[in-house]
Design brief:
By secondary structure, the chain is an alpha/beta fold. The protein contains eight helices and eleven strands. The mean pLDDT is about 95.
């Protein structure tokens, strides 16, 4: 079974689908900072580096499915929230264009929870109607990755369409009863290295690839709430920026002084460091042999924070694989 990957990023979604038995036949990613990482970890996949706007549908290979997460910044509750009025928000319609022209058996689109907010309701309804007009039975749901073998609170909207000729809708897999914790994810890792001057990477000098953390102060926004989760809890959401990476669980939880102001516990300040790039990758359930290539440590955090957690992707991909195989088996007979 083959899939094509749009808005690929570092490849968390792709890796989850590979684990479920799919082959990533073709991928598209416009951000040049990501290219080296993707090509290193997916050496057999053709990576198209053009903006999706400039990719004619006839140059996209045929496949059983299309997967991808159109840029989510314009839908984010933390961002400007321009949604469909933002150039990045409009990229959703490029996804729909290729889906319409290729008409695979299924598609998966992933986005932030903000796409369901009231200010985006009309735009989201328009997107769903576009999908439905293309002969697909649509299912969507707000899921938390922690319920799918991922040690992290991470809410994301997953939209899945099955071509009507399959004769069914996708049904989301059951949630896990046990939520993995920070202890499960990162307790075995030794102390990481601080980034070099100007937060440049230590590169090949690291004993564990990417096990380095960003230096620098913490903004008033960062200090407005607790940023520490305990060892026995799942992590906060891994964001696409090192400045806002959670604090390592070796530190005690921050102390609230007043509304929107918290401080580090006096005398314990040395324990408060950001999670390393590798620790964030572990929390996003990337395996240790998945290497992130960058010069600026900030780019490592960005690639990981923008990715779909691998285990989360795998749980969904495994269910899709079963349904598509069943359809193909019946169709071949």
């Amino acid at each position: 079974m083959k899939v094509i990957s749009l808005f690929t990023g570092a490849g968390g979604l792709d890796l989850g689908f590979e684990k479920a038995g799919f082959k990533i036949a073709w991928a598209n990613e416009y951000d040049k900072v990501i290219w080296e990482t993707f090509e290193f970890n997916f050496p057999k996949t053709k990576l198209d580096k053009r903006s999706i706007v400039n990719v004619p549908s006839e140059e996209v290979p045929n496949a059983d499915g299309i997967i991808g997460g159109p840029p989510c910044q314009s839908w984010s509750e933390a961002g400007a929230g321009r949604g469909i009025n933002d150039a990045r928000g409009k990229l959703f319609f490029e996804y729909i264009r290729i889906l319409k022209d290729k008409e695979p058996l299924f598609f998966l689109a992933e986005n932030v929870s903000g796409i369901l907010s009231s200010r985006h309701s009309k735009a989201f309804e328009k997107i769903l109607k576009e999908f439905q007009s293309l002969n697909y039975n649509i299912t969507y749901k707000l899921l938390n990755a922690k319920n799918y073998n991922t040690p992290q609170d991470r809410q994301r909207v997953i939209i899945i369409g099955y071509h009507k000729k399959i004769g069914k809708k996708f049904e989301f897999p059951k949630e896990n009863e046990i939520v993995p914790t920070l202890k499960d994810a990162i307790a075995d890792l030794p102390k990481p290295e601080p980034a070099k001057n100007k937060n440049k990477t230590n590169g090949d000098k690291l004993k564990i690839p990417n096990h380095e953390y960003m230096n620098g102060g913490f903004s008033t926004i960062y200090l407005s709430r607790n940023r520490v989760r305990s060892w026995d809890e799942p992590s906060f959401t891994i964001q696409a920026g090192g400045r806002h990476a959670p604090i390592h669980p070796q530190a005690p939880k921050m102390k609230k002084i007043e509304l929107n102001k918290q401080i580090f516990i006096p005398g314990k300040e040395h324990l408060y460091r950001r999670l390393s790039v590798r620790e964030c990758a572990r929390i996003q359930t990337f395996p240790d042999n998945f290497i992130f290539k960058y010069r600026d440590v900030a780019d490592g955090y960005k690639m990981i924070g923008n990715a779909v957690p691998v285990n989360f992707a795998y749980a969904i991909a495994k269910k899709i694989a079963k349904d598509i195989k069943n359809y193909k088996n019946k169709h071949s007979k």
